[in-house]
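Appendix B, example 12.
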Amino acid sequence: MRVQPPHPQSPGNFIDAFVKKIFSQIVVFVDFLKWYADPEFVDAVDLTKIKPTPTHYIGKAGDERIVDLVFQCPLKNGNGNLMVVIIFEHQSGSLKKIPRKLHKYISAIWDAETKEGKKVLSAPYFIVLRTAKKSHRGPYATMTDSLPKDRNGKPVGHVVEIGYQVVDLPAWDFYKLVGGPVLRLALGILKKMIEDAGEEFSEAMLPLLEISDGEQKIELTKELVQFIDRAFKAHNRRLDEAKLSEALKPIVEETMIKSFLDEKYDVGFAEGETKGKAEGKAEGKAEAVLTFLRAKFHRVPRSIEKAVRQKTDPRTLDSLAAHIVKCDSLKGFEKILR
């Protein structure tokens, strides 16, 4: 029985996945609140007790799936919680659909809490993280906008409006992004990929230099490169090695090289991911070795490039990668290569 290949992710899918993975870290979410949420709200919440909330609150239907993030935020006064929902809007040119989504979300949350026997329901707090190419202009959309009007233009019936906050990514100057390094990395990369398809994404990687934890730096670099690679493909472009080398040049280190060459890491520096496993792994590692060579020595002679690509043993390529850090010149690396 032939197994059908998985359907490729749409641009929205992989962007949503990236945002959810980064922002689901409590530290990053709290950092985001401190810098971008309403200060009055932030002051009322105990930031040390925030925790993610299961997304079953929102429902399981396709149009109700929660790419958005939900967090329970206890109040300092102990009188209850605010249920904070970050709604990620990366394609809409307007906010027309937001009011109806808010009504659906808070109804689902309150229904779930009622079934759980909670006497005090959570207060809603909605933040729309908007990443369309152009900033939103004019008043925010309301439920009233979608309802019939009388002769005087006033809405017919009684309407409950739910307030929300909009954090508009295109409105920010890249160099004015604030917050900790992980938050600025995520927002900066998002901005670059959406704004200009990543023409100059290397500057968005610079906050990595502020991260002292080696393992965290490695994992973040993996996530960012995977996201950038997919964003380029979404624009029918290939992430070229020169651009990647330039971006990684300030942060190249031995531990990172070893991690990048781990067999579990499959970003696709070349096209190895479309070939057989053994061949693809070797080819991918060979391209990664060349990437780090260019990051350290800028230009790599064709003779060395050809010799590296001819290596088919993944362990040999791992060894070559480890020696890059120790070599002071290409001649030294060439001796090892032989």
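Strands lie at 51-52, 69-74, 81-89, 123-130, 165-168. The radius of gyration is 24 Å.
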